[in-house]
Design a protein that fits this description.
162 residues, alpha+beta, Immunoglobulin-like, four-stranded antiparallel sheet, 3 helices, disordered N terminus
Length: 162
C-alpha cells in the first residue's frame, strides 16, 4: 500500500512538471540588411510559481542559460544564428531545471536515452524568415537618378547654346 501511494505521488508530481503553463512572446530578426545574424528572443512567465534555481533552455543541440528579470517574474531565452542556418519555421525551446539539465548531460555522456527527462515547459517560436530587402538600395537609385538628370540637363544646355 505504501508503494502505491509513493507511485501516485510521483506520477502527480511528474504530471504537474510536464504541464507547467507559461505565457510567452517572442521576437526574431525580420531582415538581414541591418544585421549579420538572426536574433531569437523569447520572454516567458510561469502562470504559477516558477521553479527554483537556474533554468536552462535547449534549442536543437544548443544548451542555453535562461535569464530571469530582477524586477519581475519574467524569464528570457536569447540566441543568435547565421541567417543561412536559421530558416523560417517553428523552433521548439525546451525549459529544464538545473537537476534536469544535469541528468540530460549525464544521459548524453553515457549514451543513454533522454526520453524520460521531460522539460518543465516547452515554448514555440515561429520565425518568418529574414527578408533580403530590395536588390538595390534607395540611396543607389537616388544617385543614379541624379546622374541621369545632370546628364540630361547638360546635353540640353549644350543643344540650346549650339
Amino acid at each position: 500500500m505504501h508503494t502505491f501511494l509513493e507511485t501516485l505521488l510521483f506520477a502527480t508530481l511528474l504530471i504537474s512538471a510536464v504541464t507547467a503553463k507559461v505565457t510567452s512572446h517572442s521576437y526574431t530578426t525580420a531582415e538581414d540588411i541591418s544585421s549579420s545574424k538572426t536574433l531569437f528572443i523569447s520572454q516567458f512567465q510561469f502562470e504559477k510559481e516558477p521553479p527554483r534555481g537556474t533554468l536552462y533552455a535547449e534549442v536543437g543541440n544548443r544548451n542555453l542559460i535562461v535569464a530571469k528579470s530582477a524586477d519581475t517574474d519574467e524569464f528570457q531565452v536569447t540566441w543568435t544564428e547565421e541567417h543561412k542556418l536559421a530558416p523560417a519555421g517553428k523552433y521548439e525551446v525546451k525549459i529544464f531545471t538545473e537537476e534536469q539539465q544535469s541528468n540530460l548531460r549525464k544521459a548524453r555522456r553515457d549514451g543513454e536515452s533522454t526520453d524520460s527527462i521531460t522539460p518543465v515547459a516547452t515554448l514555440e517560436i515561429i520565425h518568418q524568415g529574414v527578408s533580403k530587402g530590395p536588390w538595390m538600395s534607395s540611396e543607389s537609385v537616388a544617385c543614379v537618378a541624379a546622374v541621369l538628370i545632370m546628364y540630361y540637363a547638360y546635353t540640353k544646355k549644350g543643344a540650346i547654346l549650339a
